[in-house]
């Protein structure tokens, strides 16, 4: 019998968010409570829905060596984008990969994050049937395309690839800002070569399984998904999951009850004798006993359950053994119903109920056909019967050894696949680190080049400023020289003008003097002959004018030279 289902990769993460199924054929109705009716299996239980552990501000950042790192997303400010540059989710689901990639490279990160938020709202289904219808339309567009292959998706934009994977799988965890999966992993998830469970991430088919379910169901992982509904969750150490003893595939208890895979059948160990409740695996069509499996789950896990968890597990056991017709199965069914009633009414606490159910399992072990056979073993048996019993014991031991060997081989293959996945992840990280280093060196060289250009421009600016200052001083010097030369030329002009006027006055004076002399000589000649008194008067006035009045050259110099200015 397989041990209780354990998910070592999950690391204790709690489920809180239901995600849309990637199979549009499945009913999207809300899950019913497991304790509503123990006589029927819900149409789709909460345990058969894919869930991802998210919160308001906490998200799984990356999965590394089976552990999840938690990070807090940063807030961003949304900038406006013109309507011509905008793209929609329908465009991403319908248009060519290269065209959308080219458009996304020109869009701001805030707009791309807004696209992802819009798809997250649709996947959450807050608007009921409208959101489910929008999602099914998007998923039909994506799944009907034949151009979305690994070769074309390698050229896709990171956000474009995340949106396509989220639409194809119906899981909004791929859209969370803190999820960090390599582009190779996203492409493998899209083409069903890797498990879509972010906490699993195994290569498909898991453990190189060759069964029909693993080979024919796209994206099915036998390590974390239900064989019937192909969904996963993070419930461990519980009766919600039933494992096959032979092929190690898992099935939701609700799904097994709904498909009538839990029924009465011959004893698994002997194949003869009274029938008991068995589970028939849909993957390998072989049966596994249920009473021993339930007993192992309770013995290993019940001490750590609280009252609510114990009631929930007792409800699962009640529904498993509801149709039991053997004595032990009916006794367990009645005891579980009795303990559920007492726990709900508060008559007993969880510890007392746990001890009581474990005691019931011990009593059922004593009532088993094997115990009765041991009680009668004191009587003598025939040699042939003894040989038959020994052969049965040997066969049982060999069967258990084969099961253990198969389990060890499966664990070895799983460890090898995990190691290979880690090596690939390490290679991806090394390549990304090399790319980041190259980008950093490129940016550094660009910064140094810009700094050199800035220094050169500063030197040119200082040189031009120095030349400008020199030109300014030279202009001021030339202006002073021009002013000095202007004053000097004006003074020379004035002197020359005055000299010319003076010479003209001297010439006029000389001319008048000659004229007077001539008049005097004529007067003398006239006086000798008896002159006129009026002529004598005129002569006297001219004489006074020439010898008594000062020359007017100096007073008229400024008037004759109007542009003269005294500095």
User: SSE order in H/E notation?
Assistant: EEHHHHHHHHEEHEEEHHHHHHHH
Strand order of the largest sheet: 5-6-7
Structural class: mainly alpha
Number of helices: 17
Number of strands: 7
How would you state the average pLDDT, rounded?
A: 75
Tell me about the largest β-sheet: 3 strands, antiparallel
Helix share, percent: 55-70%
Shape: rod-shaped
- Cα radius of gyration in angstroms: 55 Å
Strand content: 5-15%
- For the termini, the CA-CA separation is 125 Å
Stretches with pLDDT under 50, minimum 5 residues: 8-49, 51-78, 374-379, 552-567
Biased composition (Polar residues): 1-21, 554-567
Region (Disordered): 1-53, 547-567
Organism: Lupinus luteus
Biased composition (Basic and acidic residues): 26-42
List the SSEs and their pairings.
Blueprint: E1 59-64, E2 67-71, H1 89-94, H2 97-105, H3 109-124, H4 129-143, H5 150-153, H6 158-169, H7 183-190, H8 212-216, E3 241-243, E4 250-252, H9 253-258, E5 262-265, E6 276-280, E7 287-289, H10 291-301, H11 307-320, H12 327-345, H13 350-366, H14 369-375, H15 383-528, H16 533-547, H17 553-560
Antiparallel strand pairs: 1-2, 3-4, 5-6, 6-7
Helix pairs in contact: 3-4, 3-6, 6-7, 11-12, 12-13, 15-16
GO biological process, one term: root meristem specification
Region (Disordered): 1-53, 547-567
GO molecular function, one term: zinc ion binding
What does this structure look like?
Helices cover 56% and strands 5% of the residues. Strand 3 and strand 4 (250-252) form a beta hairpin. Strands 5-6-7 form a 3-stranded antiparallel sheet. The protein has a two-stranded antiparallel sheet with strand order 1-2. A two-stranded antiparallel ribbon has the order 3-4. Helix 3 packs parallel to helix 6 (158-169), helix 6 packs parallel to helix 7 and helix 11 (307-320) packs antiparallel against helix 12. It has 567 residues and is mainly α. It is rod-shaped, with a radius of gyration of 55 Å. The model is unreliable at 8-49, 51-78, 374-379 and 552-567 (pLDDT under 50).
